[in-house]
Amino acid sequence: MPAEHVDVLIVGAGLSGIGAACHLQRESPGKSVAILEARGAIGGTWDLFRYPGIRSDSDMFTLGYSFKPWTNAKAIADGDDIREYVRETAREYGVEAKIRFQHRVVSAEWSSETARWTVHAHRDDTDETVQLTCSFLYTCSGYYRYDQGYTPDFPGSDEFTGQIVHPQHWPADLDYAGKKVVVIGSGATAVTLVPAMAETAAHVTMLQRSPRYILSMPAKDAVADTLRDKLPAGVAYPIIRWKNVLLTMLMFQLSRRVPSVVKSVLRKGVTAQLPEGYDVDKHFKPRYDPWDERLCLVPDGDFFKSLRAGRSSVVTDRIERFTEKGIRLTSGAELEADVIITATGLNLQAVGGMQLTVDGKDVNLPDTVAYKGIMLSGVPNFALTLGYTNASWTLKADLVGEYICRLLNQMDARGQQIVTPLAPEAGQPLTPFLDLKSGYVQRSIDSLPKQGPAAPWKAYQNYVRDLLLLRRGPVDDGLRFGRVPALVAVPTSAATTEATPTTASA
Prior knowledge:
Elements: E1 4-11, H1 15-27, E2 33-36, H2 45-48, H3 60-63, H4 79-92, E3 99-100, E4 103-111, E5 116-123, E6 128-139, E7 163-165, E8 180-184, H5 188-198, E9 203-208, E10 214-217, H6 222-230, H7 233-257, H8 259-271, H9 280-284, E11 296-299, H10 302-308, E12 312-316, E13 319-322, E14 326-329, E15 334-336, E16 339-342, E17 355-358, E18 361-362, E19 370-371, E20 375-376, E21 382-384, H11 393-414, E22 418-421, E23 431-432, H12 439-442, E24 450-451, H13 463-472, E25 479-483, E26 487-489, E27 497-499, E28 504-505
Parallel strand pairs: 1-2, 1-6, 2-3, 4-17, 6-21, 7-16, 8-9, 8-16, 9-12, 10-11
Antiparallel strand pairs: 4-5, 5-6, 13-14, 14-15, 17-18, 19-20, 22-25, 23-24, 25-28, 26-27
Helix pairs in contact: 1-4, 1-11, 5-10, 6-7, 7-8, 11-13
């Protein structure tokens, strides 16, 4: 019995995967689509992470989809609200029925003879192996491992008598009320956890090896609220979205061109919210320039309110070892703790950890070059969604969805079945795909695709530039197309076609 076939197979039912399916529904409605999701629910990151206070680290007017206005009052939204927004979108566009839960994709093999991918997935609920074929494989699985967060090997961790928890695997029954908590880390997760846990904990200490840049902003957008009161949602939303896009781009460009000015502004903002006499240099003066790592957003200054109230504190030091009662630092001090939270980052993993094979040859991701930040050199009929590092993830995910629909529609119009990015000319300098200096990126940078020095091989991390390139620019520059002369109909769950083994260049 032949494997079930669909035109487009999407991997992942998170923010990106649901968005991709909606774009196909809207712009390529004739395509049959299925979504394979390794977990048992819609939402991706926003369903996986359940730690206290979890929220967006971007404003929701840009983290939301371009085609579905964000109507919640909060611009910096809670995880529950974001998860419901993604699920509501899936229901509204009829995407829910296309999702196969508990299907973890293990491998995918491309055959140029049939112009198809054969995808192997493991059903974690039944322990079965499932096989599907598709004409186009579209991965929306993010860039980190869902099953395992990153925790360094702390000496003595087995001696600690309290609980050690990684935020990625938060126990639903964790009781920290009235207890001493140490949060190891200084990133977005840590500055979110500290004020949230401090509401009921005896005290929360954020233990950081080095400071990060923190930016406080209102949880609600006053300009957005005014526009939404006076204009229809369909009119107000694009205006608000563009306002926030341009402000974020301005902040990033200033950080790159005049970092000293941005440092000064960020420092003044932090100093104004700290108690008088606080050692700003020790605890809030990073060694790097703004946007070498993502800024940590703090809605309504809740992190600083907690510090001022004495419910939490910051310690900047290095860990010597865990002890029975807490953590001994290299300075000789010891932090007592009942609960230790290791907010120490993620483990990167491209394309959901699946093994790609093209005509019998395994694809080594570091040997590939990303085309427009979407496709991979030498890998036919394949796309991946990787959002911006300096702006909202969904801004790029939306553009990827639009571009893939344009590409597929053009191929249909021309009778083409195969599209492959050609690698840039030999000798061109290649650089890592992600340009952040964050530890979680640097640990795994050599396992990711590369990027070239110029378009279409360079990922500019610039929404306006990508808007022109992906929405308005040519679809087929730098691509090779193939045509299968004869098509033979095969029975599938939707109207699909099977290519004969004979192929020819367009």
